[in-house]
Amino acid sequence: MSYEKLDALPPLREVIANHGLAAQKRLGQNFLLDLNLTRKIARCAGDLSQGTVFEVGPGPGGLTRALLLEGAASVIAIEKDPRCQAALAEINEASEGRLQVIEADALTIDIASMGDAPRRVVANLPYNVATPLLIGWLKQAEAVQSMTLMFQKEVAERIVAAPGESGYSRLSVLSNWRCDTRFELVLPPRAFTPPPKVDSAVVTLIPLAEPRFPCRLEDMETVTAAAFGQRRKMLRRSLKTLGVDTEALLEKTGIDPTARAETLTVEQFAALAREYRALKGA
Ligand code: SAM
Question: pTM surpassing 0.85?
């Protein structure tokens, strides 16, 4: 692989000026212009030399260039903003066919049906759709090798949080039920152009071959929504919204009815999800 043409691309500030890519807030545009930083993020994703890397929201292409420079065999970049197409076409040309750009809303794209395995997702996500995108990928985790994603730091902390920690939430349970999760690094607002209001952080999620504990995803979604929907309440109250016999549910799973969602382990949530299914079917 030759990197000469990629190395010869103009600095990202110039790319933004040349293509009139003034950042738009409604698209969550906070760009990373430091290639050392984007290469560091790309390296968190591991070996990119096989399969396909999916990048959501390449923007002017700072992370896209980094992925290609770090040896990605094939990158599929999904960008909603048509203004970015010309800048990305320049990278496409310099990459000698390793980049494919799709102009679309990433929420509508089924990555499991595209590219070759192993499929990795690497993205500095637009914050307004970051969580729904992650939930969508968790739903097809069997098709994904790894996800290295930038979120607002508070969301990143929730993804890796353990029971009893302040960020422990529905997102923690769903993520750690389906994946190993790893906190990578924190980026201050000044790392971005324009700077966002809060710190950002990168996490990596590695889907397990099977969910950590058996149960159906839709039941896990339902019980975690009920439990964390009223997280200050005891489970005997918060789980009432499930519409099944709450007493039986807690008794059969051996969970203390006076406990709160924030103290339950992922294993206990999976037990609740299985028993919820059994009671609902009964
Ligand atoms: N990857 C670039 C970087 O690191 O400098 C840009 C990251 S910026 C935080 C988010 C990018 O996602 C923007 O380019 C924005 O236009 C794009 N975007 C926003 N919503 C999107 C969506 N629903 N589907 C695809 N791209 C989207």
Answer: yes
Kindly state the percentage of the chain with pLDDT values over 70. 100
- Alpha carbon distance 14, 263 (integer Å): 50
Residues sharing a CB contact under 8 Å with residue 269, sequence separation 6 or more, in sequence order: 173, 177, 220, 223, 224, 227
Kindly give the distance from the C-alpha atom of residue 47 to the centroid of ligand 1, in angstroms, as a whole number.
23
Question: Which of 38, 81, 134 has the most ligand 1 atoms within 8 A of CB, as the residue to mutate?
Answer: 81
* CA of 213 relative to ligand 1 center, distance in Å: 34
Q: Which residue has the tokens 């065999």?
A: 73
Q: Which residues line ligand 1 (CB under 6 A)?
A: 27-32, 56-59, 62-63, 78-81, 105-107, 124, 126, 129
Contacts 24+ apart (CB under 8 A), 241-245: 242/276, 243/280, 244/276, 244/279, 244/280, 245/279
Domains of the chain: 4-207 (3.40.50.150), 217-281 (1.10.8.100)
Per-residue confidence (pLDDT) for residue 282, from 0 to 100: 56
Tens-place pLDDT, residues 70-106: 999 999 999 999 999 999 999 999 998 999 999 999 9
Strands 192-193 and 31-32, bridge-based pairing: antiparallel
Cα gap 171→157, rounded to integer Å: 10
Per-residue confidence (pLDDT) for residue 76, from 0 to 100: 98
For ligand 1, atom 1, the nearest C-alpha belongs to 58
Q: How close is the Cα of 68 to the center of ligand 1, in Å?
A: 18
Residue 136's pLDDT is what? 96
